[in-house]
Amino acid sequence: MKHNISIKWKVFSYFLIFSLIMLALLWLFQIVLLNDFYKYIKINQLKTYANYVSTNIDNITFDSKFNDTLADKDICMLIFSENGQIKYSSDILKNCVIHRMPHSISFEFAKKMESENINFIEQNYDNIRRYTDQLDLSNFKPGNILSVTKAVDSDNNVYYIMLNSSIFPVAATVSTLRTQLIIITIIMLILSFLLSLRVSKVVANPIIDLNKNAKQLATGDYSTKFDNKGYSEIVELSNTLNYTTEELSKVENLRRELISNISHDLRTPLTMITGYGEVMRDLPGENTPENIQIIIDEAKRLTSLVNNVLDISKYQSGTQVLTPEKFNLTELLGEIKLRYDKLTEKDGYNIVFEKDEDTFVNADKIRITQVIYNLLNNAITYTGEDKKITIKQTVNGDTVKVEVIDTGVGISKDDIPYIWDRYYKVKETHKRAQIGTGLGLSIVKEILKLHDAEYGVESELNKGSDFWFTLKKDNT
Fold first, then answer.
1. Are residues 163 and 45 in the same domain?
2. How many domains does the chain divide into?
3. pTM of this prediction?
4. Percent of the chain having pLDDT more than 70?
5. Based on the domain organization, do 53 and 153 belong to the same domain?
6. For tag attachment on the chain, is the N or C end more exposed, with fewer CB atoms within 10 Å?
7. Which domain covers residue 383, as residue numbers?
8. 73-127, pLDDT tens digit by residue?
9. What tens digit of pLDDT does each residue of 23-50 get?
10. Is residue 57 located within the same domain as residue 151?
11. Both 274 and 300 in a single domain?
């Protein structure tokens, strides 16, 4: 089947076909059409010289230089006046028809051709007999182009310009070219065959190697390396595939970590729910509001983990739609701070809220609330031993900047570009049970991107982290 032919043999066949086409064109133009091209060129030469002489009949100096020009082009010329007198003659061809005729016959010949408005004829016996029966043509071979042009000078004197050029060399030339082309064709076919093999190998082998390595990569072997050798496109493709391999390797590592995180984070609340439920079922007096509240809290925690996975899928697919509204951002930050105070005061966390002025924004209040929650959860997870977290609001012109600052171990410069990725976690010692699925910052990123908001993080190792985002103020 055609589609099963390898690229190596396709390149080979295309190159060989191209070579054969070039040879065919060479034979066509150099052998088959040579006579027609040669005749066409001769006719145009005669036409050019006839027009030149007829246009400049008053100004031409018929000197040796002019004669040499005609000789270079293998052109004979006879110029007759109106009464049959020769004004100029150049006889450079061995069998020039117009000079081998008697001049009187040549003159009559020229007048008849001009009167019948025939400028060019190819010499053969029938053509010449048309114009005169007084010429013995037995000594003249066919293969001449005859031209007649009428000219009038400034004094209204009429002249007949006769030109004759031979095309005899064509037959000999064709024979010589044919012999040469046979030799050239044999050489070119051999060279084309060898070159086709070489080119097909150079082009195909890198692609074959890429295909082999790609199949290896498809099996899940992320140690596969693509050699960036060959022409530039192959090098570029190899680099792209190497980059793809690295990214797939990272995704695979993240997938494994996600499975580990999910299994741990889901197992904990499920274990708590199952354990407290069995205690309440089996032990008298354990059906208390406190135990029920623990089951409710763990169920909510489980729901939150599942919702995070669902949310990031919606953001990534573009199906999440914002519902913007005008609200007091400062007031929202204060409310969230109070909620966290009640939740974390028993653990000794100190959340500080710094603001400059009340600020309104037009955004999706529920999603912005989710952003702040995730940033605070991240800060609580990673803050330092002083357990201090700062929420800071700063107004700058038409924008408001919100910062969530912790005093934890910070983030290295190598990790900062990846912390917004799904499931990515900084490789530092942390409170495992509070970390969740690793989707918090990724959700923050997607929500802020939907709001066209700027966001970022400033962090150094052992100096804490400052996560921030900006929104446009609503001054209406």
1. yes
2. 4
3. 0.44
4. 80
5. yes
6. N
7. 321-472
8. 888 889 999 888 988 888 887 777 778 777 887 888 788 777 766 665 554 444 5
9. 888 778 777 777 777 777 878 888 888 8
10. yes
11. yes
In a domain, 224, yes or no: no
Whether residues 329 and 468 share a domain: the answer is yes
Looking up tokens 């992320």, which residue turns up?
222
- Average pLDDT estimate for 297-320: 71
- Is 227 inside any structural domain? no
